């Protein structure tokens, strides 16, 4: 099971990234959990200084931008 984490304070970009990640995982038909990490201290533990960010299985894949479901599918495969 993939663990997808959206790192961000809940801004519109963070929400869009979460929607795109959710869509990508559903399109791939994989088992996954989607977690929103909103605590700034927790976000900093990932070494992330710009949000939104996307982490898959604890590894940060994208920082400071919203990527498309197509790009996220490549990260999940």
List keywords for this structure.
single chain; 77 residues; alpha+beta; Glutaredoxin; 4-stranded mixed sheet; globular
Q: What does this protein structure show overall?
A:
This protein is an alpha+beta fold and 77 residues long. It has one domain: Glutaredoxin. 40% of the residues lie in helices and 27% in strands. It has three helices and four strands. Helix 1 crosses helix 3. The longest helix has 17 residues.
Question: How is the topology of this model organized?
Answer:
Layout lengths: L1 E6 L4 H17 L3 E6 L2 H6 L7 E4 L2 E5 L5 H8 L1
Parallel strand pairs: 1-2
Antiparallel strand pairs: 1-3, 3-4
Helix pairs in contact: 1-3
In short:
The chain has 3 helices and 4 strands. With 77 residues, it is an alpha+beta fold. It has one domain (2-76): Glutaredoxin (3-Layer(aba) Sandwich), CATH 3.40.30.10.
How far apart are the first and last residues' alpha carbons, in Å? 12 Å
| Integer-rounded radius of gyration | 11 Å
Structural class: alpha+beta
Amount of helix: 40-55%
Shape: globular
